[in-house]
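hey so i finally got around to running the thing on that chain from the lab meeting. sorry it took forever, my laptop kept dying and i had to restart like 3 times. anyway pasting the input first so we r on the same page abt which one it is
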Amino acid sequence: MHYSGFPGSLIGSIVLIVEIVGLLFSSSCSPRESTHVSPSGEYRAFLTIEPCPQGYGVWVVNVTGHEEEVLLSEMMPDHPASLMAYIAWDDADRLWWYGSDDGSVFYWTRSETGWSRNAYSSDPQGGPAPPDSLFTGGNRTRSER
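ok and heres what got predicted. didnt touch it at all, straight out
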C-alpha cells in the first residue's frame, strides 16, 4: 500500500513524524559532535543514547583514549535520555556528570584498574568539588534528546 498519495491522511502524518524523529535522534546523538578532550589531552568523553531493557533510551557515558580505544562505556539506567545531562572535565582529568532534572552529580576517576564512578558529596571534607563549568557552561557538554 502506498500512502504518499494521501498528504492529509493520518497515516501520512505518522510516517512523516516518525521520519523527523528518526532524523533528530540520529543527529542529536552523534558522539563526535559533542566530544570533549580532558585537560591532559589523554581522554575524550561523550554521551550516547542506548535502549535499556525497559525499552526507552538512557544516557551512556563514554571515555576513549588517544587511539579511540574504549576505556569506559557506562549505561546510566536511572537517567532517561529524555532528560537533560551535562558532562565536564576538571583539572585532575576527572569526568563529571550532572543530571539537571534530578540534580544528580557523579564523577569518574581513572586508576590502574580502570575508571570508577563516585557519588559527589557536597560536604567539603567529602572529596573533590565539581568544576564550575559543569553548571555554568565552559567545557561541558549539554545533551538533550
